[in-house]
Specification:
It contains 4 helices and 5 strands; from the N terminus they run αββαβαββα. The protein has 137 residues and is of the alpha+beta class. It has a single domain, classed as Cytidine Deaminase, domain 2. A 5-stranded mixed β-sheet has the order 2-1-3-4-5. The radius of gyration is 14 Å and the shape is globular. The relative contact order is 0.17. The structure holds tetrahydrodeoxyuridine. Tetrahydrodeoxyuridine binds next to helix 2.
Length: 137
């Protein structure tokens, strides 16, 4: 990811966050993923009165990318107040399409990245149905 892609991804996650639907937790999350062809897709958390049906922002972004034909993701930005890490379920879903994806956590209050990880750092030993199968990278 080059510097202009990085800034575009940060801006996209921050803008998306403004659209989060989080009336129950009031914790607004915006995510943006960068596909290997340079396209950016965004997601927000979408809560539900039946709490367990809530969708996380990261998974919405991944789903949108895949539904648009992308299969390899190279970076994700997650924007929250404070710069929180993706939950475990989102880490595993990110792993499906980006085993080596860069994860950038942005503090929405300061509009700045505060931490950066590889997915392997956040989710060592990712679950794979076929341990020897090639992964998208
Ligand atoms: N949330 C996300 O969108 N992504 C995560 O990785 C963790 C949590 C959302 C779900 C819920 O709407 C709110 O944050 C509080 O848990």
């Amino acid at each position: 990811m080059n510097e202009s892609q990085r800034q575009a991804l940060i801006d996209a996650a921050l803008s998306a966050r403004d659209l989060a639907y989080a009336p129950y937790s009031n914790f607004h999350v915006g995510a943006a993923v960068l596909a290997d062809d340079g396209q950016i897709f965004t997601g927000v958390n979408v809560e539900n009165a039946s709490y367990g049906l809530t969708q996380c922002a990261e998974r919405v972004a991944v789903t949108t990318a895949v539904a648009s034909g992308c299969r390899v993701l190279i970076a994700v930005v997650v924007a929250t107040s404070g710069g929180h890490s993706p939950c475990g379920a989102c880490r595993q879903v990110l792993a499906e399409f980006g085993g080596t994806i860069e994860v950038l956590l942005v503090d929405a209050d300061r509009r700045q990245p505060i931490r950066q990880f590889t997915l392997e750092e956040l989710l060592p030993g990712q679950f794979r149905l076929e341990p020897d199968a090639p992964r998208p990278s």
